[in-house]
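Hi F.,

I've been meaning to write this up properly since the lab meeting, where we talked about keeping a consistent format for the predictions we share between groups. The idea is simple: the sequence comes first, exactly as it goes in, then the C-alpha cells exactly as they come out, then a line or two of notes. No screenshots and no reformatting. I'm using this chain as the first example so we have something concrete to point to.
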Amino acid sequence: MKELTHFDQGGNAIMVDVSDKEITKRTAVAKGTIRVSKEVFRAIKEGTSKKGDVLGVARVAGIMGAKRTFELIPMCHVLSLEKCNVDFELKEDVLEVEATCLVKTTGKTGVEMEALTGVNIALLTIYDMCKAIDKTMVISNVYLHQKTGGKSGDVVNIPESIL
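Output, unedited:
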C-alpha cells in the first residue's frame, strides 16, 4: 500500500524531501472543459466579448498560474519551468471549450500540479471574462491526462467520464 508523502509519522504536513532524487526530464499534460451557452460560445469564437480576446487572456493566465503553483498549493516545490503551453479546442456541438496545459521541466519533482493549476486558471479566466453574458457556465472534467519522468514512470489517464 502506498503511503501519503506529504505527512510525517506524526501526521504533520510536510514538504517532501527531494534532495536525494535523480534529476530527470518531466512533463505533465492536464485537461479540463467549460460548458457555456450559445451566446458565450459565439462571443469566444468570434472574439466579440467586451473584455477582449477571451482565449488569449486565458492562455496567458494559465501559464502564469502554472508558474505560480508553489504560491497556491502549500507543499509544492518552487520549480523552474522550461516550457508551459496552454491550448484550447472549441467543441461547438456540445458548447464546450477544452483547455489543455502542457508543462515541462528537468528536475527532481514532477510538474503535475503545475499543469493542473494552469488548466484550472485558464478555465476560471474564461468564466471571469464571460460571466457578464452568462453565469451558468460549468467547469468540469479537470484531470491529469499524461505525465512522464520520475520514479513513478509514465502515466496516461483517460477517465471513463470523458470517453
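Notes:
The helical segments are 38-46, 54-67, 69-72, 112-130.
The chain has a mean pLDDT of 92.

If this format works for you, I'll send the rest the same way.

G.
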